[in-house]
């Protein structure tokens, strides 16, 4: 029986591990807004929804989700689950916005309630999230979901987010 050193390539089409060269550490985020600027464009679920961060700072975040037919339920009406997911992302962003970074870089939505007011039809979604209370670990937030072009309020959410 022969053994192969994993560092030695056995298949010429796959040359094996390569040394990436000298690593330069990424600068650490300076506050919660910086954490969100890094996380939102790389979070797999957020990327699937197409959500982008428009602005963030001092307890407020504005995001956008483009209209896509894959996110509809009937005709061109955006599915409530997609709207709820956007509210959750908004709560997270508002909770972190401008906040000091805790020792443990983690967070979770602990509760959320969404009131659906009217359908969003074939229109991008504007997500406006505000932190109402900034406790030591718990933040209470509201999120307005609006038609990006019409400005029509389609849903309002409230939620609690735990940081650290």
UniProtKB/TrEMBL annotation:
GO molecular function, one term: fatty acyl-CoA hydrolase activity
Comp. bias (Low complexity): 1-11
InterPro entries attached to this UniProt entry: ACOT13, HotDog_dom_sf, PAAI_dom, TesB_ACOT8-like_N
Keywords of the record: Hydrolase
Region (Disordered): 1-33
Every Acyl-CoA thioesterase-like N-terminal HotDog domain range: 72-161
Database matches in PANTHER family: ACYL-COENZYME A THIOESTERASE 13 (PTHR21660:SF1), THIOESTERASE SUPERFAMILY MEMBER-RELATED (PTHR21660)
NCBIfam families to which the protein is assigned, alphabetical: unchar_dom_1
Name of this chain's protein: PaaI family thioesterase
């Amino acid at each position: 029986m022969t053994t192969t050193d994993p560092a030695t390539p056995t298949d010429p089409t796959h040359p094996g591990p390569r040394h990436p060269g000298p690593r330069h550490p990424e600068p650490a985020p300076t506050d919660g807004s910086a954490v969100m600027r890094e996380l939102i464009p790389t979070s797999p679920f957020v990327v699937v929804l197409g959500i982008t961060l428009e602005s963030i700072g001092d307890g407020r975040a504005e995001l956008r989700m483009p209209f896509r037919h894959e996110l509809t339920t009937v005709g061109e009406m955006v599915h409530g689950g997609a709207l709820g997911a956007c509210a959750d992302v908004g709560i997270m962003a508002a909770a972190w916005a401008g906040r000091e970074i805790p020792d443990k870089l983690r967070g979770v939505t602990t509760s959320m309630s969404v009131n659906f007011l009217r359908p969003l039809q074939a229109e991008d979604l504007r997500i406006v999230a505000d932190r109402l209370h900034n406790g030591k670990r718990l933040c209470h937030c509201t999120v307005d979901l609006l038609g990006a072009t019409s400005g029509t309020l389609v849903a309002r959410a409230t939620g609690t987010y735990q940081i650290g």
